[in-house]
Amino acid sequence: MLLNVLNYVGIAVFAASGALIGVRKRLDAFGVWTVAALTAVGGGVARDVLLGIDPPASFQHWQNLTVASATAFLVFLFHPQFSVLRMSVVVLDALGMGLFASTGALTALHHGASPLASALIGITTAAGGGILRDILVNEVPLLLQSTDLYAIPALTGAAVTVASSWWGATDTRSLIAGAGLASGFRLLALWQGWRVPVAPQNVIGRARDGLVRLIRRR
Fold first, then answer.
1. Range of the domain at 146
2. Where is this protein chiefly located (predicted)?
3. Which terminus of the chain has fewer Cβ atoms in its 10 Å neighbourhood, N or C?
4. What is the 3-state secondary structure (H, E, C) of the chain?
């Protein structure tokens, strides 16, 4: 039951983040709905495809698309109530990422996936919808931006969910631990400006220049 509830919450917050970006990009009503719906269910569809669930739950049942559509409609009408669109998108995306990383990992475990596969499917569930959203609005996906930690918090949350369940914790505790850690890690990284290092430029050349300067000083 909790797994379903958190799945709907994740769909709602991801749909809201997608709808807010659609509003910020000045898309029409159908465009906002499209971005919101794909953001909300894209990760879940990718998860179900990897787990061999055919057809994916988002297409088989009406609840997921209904939650996404209702959220998109509300955001489309009441988006001025979000005082800072960019910050709202970031917070909602972090919450959705944490929820989907943990629910995706736990769903994979329940379908017989190994712990490693479950953690990776958790990342896929968390990132899939956001990647589709960013591609649709012609932005670099958050997963690939050097200024953001995204995959590492998602992996951390998924791994904690899998480890907790593997060590005998209840689904409720596993989901709370994984989702809370992933979302908190993501928001903390944004606040502190943590980032993954990018490739250094011309390491050999810089070392050579440094050696030359050192020799000249002597």
1. 2-217
2. membrane
3. C
4. CHHHHHHHHHHHHHHHHHHHHHHHCCCCHHHHHHHHHHHHHHHHHHHHHHHCCCCCHHHHCCHHHHHHHHHHHHHHHHHHHCCCHHHHHHHHHHHHHHHHHHHHHHHHHHCCCCHHHHHHHHHHHHHHHHHHHHHHCCCCCHHHCCCCCCHHHHHHHHHHHHHHHHCCCCHHHHHHHHHHHHHHHHHHHHHHCCCCCCCCCCHHHHHHHHHHHHHHHC
- 179: amino acid identity, one letter: A
Number of domains, the chain: 1
- Between CA 91 and CA 13 the distance in angstroms is 9
Distances (CA, A) of 109 to 43, 104, 112, 174, 186: 16, 9, 5, 12, 24
- This prediction has a pTM of 0.78
Cα distance between residue 78 and residue 64, in whole Å: 21
pLDDT digits (tens, 9 = 90+) for 21-53: 888 889 999 999 999 999 999 988 999 999 998
